[in-house]
Every structure is written in C-alpha cells, then in structure tokens.
Amino acid sequence: MFSVRLMMKIALLGVSLGLSGCDGITDDLLPSGDDIRQTVEAGTSGTQVGQIPPDFSVLDTLGNSRGLYDELTRSTGVVLYFTMWCPICETHMSHMRAEVMPQFPAVQFFLVDFVSGSVAASRAAQVSNKYEDIDTLVDSNQALLSLYQASMGTTVVIDSAGNIVRMNEDYKDSVKLVETLQALP
Question: Whole-prediction pTM value?
Fold first, then answer.
C-alpha cells in the first residue's frame, strides 16, 4: 500500500511533467493584451486586417448563391459571424441583432454556419434558433472557416472597397464592432 507521502510525490511529479510540456504557459496565464499578429502589407490578398479577402461563393439557407463582392456592391460593408448555434453564439447573435444591426441598416450581416453541413440542416438550425431574419451562409465544407482562419464567434468586417477593416477576431461585446462599423466609408 502506498503511503500518503509517496502518493503526493507521484502526483507532484505528474503535475510537473504535465506542465513541462506547456512551454510558454505563463503567457497564457498573464497575457499582455498586445496584438502579436504579424504585420501584413495593406492591399495584399489575404484574410487579415488591412488585406483584400478573396471572393467566395456559398449557398445561403434558402439555396441562393451568395458571393462576397456581389454583396459589397449592395452594401457599405459585410459582417461575417461564424456560429455553431451554441448558447455562447446565441448570446452574441442576439446582442448583435438587437443592439448592432439596427444601427447599421446599410451593412449586410451574415451568420456563417460551419457545423450543420447542408442547406437543409443549416436552415433547420436557423429556424429552430429563430434567426430567419438574418441571412445565413452554409459553409458545408468549412471553406470559409478555413479561409478566414475562424472559429466559433469569429467576426470579420469587410468594407465596400473589399478590405478587411480593423476587425477579424472573436466577438467579445459590441464595442469594437460598432466602432469598426461607424468608421466604414
């Protein structure tokens, strides 16, 4: 039978070995808040702030083909919000619908469903979550998710000139989103 002291040593050894594999963990525990993304050259093609995103064409939940640059010709900008229909996304989407969208009627807001896998399943998720009033793009093969290096809650703002302007990050609250949208030409 193991003694309590020996068991504590084994536990301490296990924790030490586990933490030794977490190089740079202190940065995660005490983040600086600095933006450490690499600087990109403005006007280049890509999906980072200041770059020109490539055009895309995906279906929406009604089966219509939607392209980025087609949408930009009809609006002052496009907002993409990547959703999984989870409670966190619901909180973000509800806040965006109630607080942000009414302030910017000339901006095209899209939910990007990257989990449902088909138009029918995405439409069912959209309807069951009561978001029929927000256009939803079906990212059935996760092409947009990969293209924008997105995850749940990623929010991207693209201006009418086709530039990603000051926002390609996870939704936190509406403060940065509203500031970014107010600065659209």
Answer: 0.77
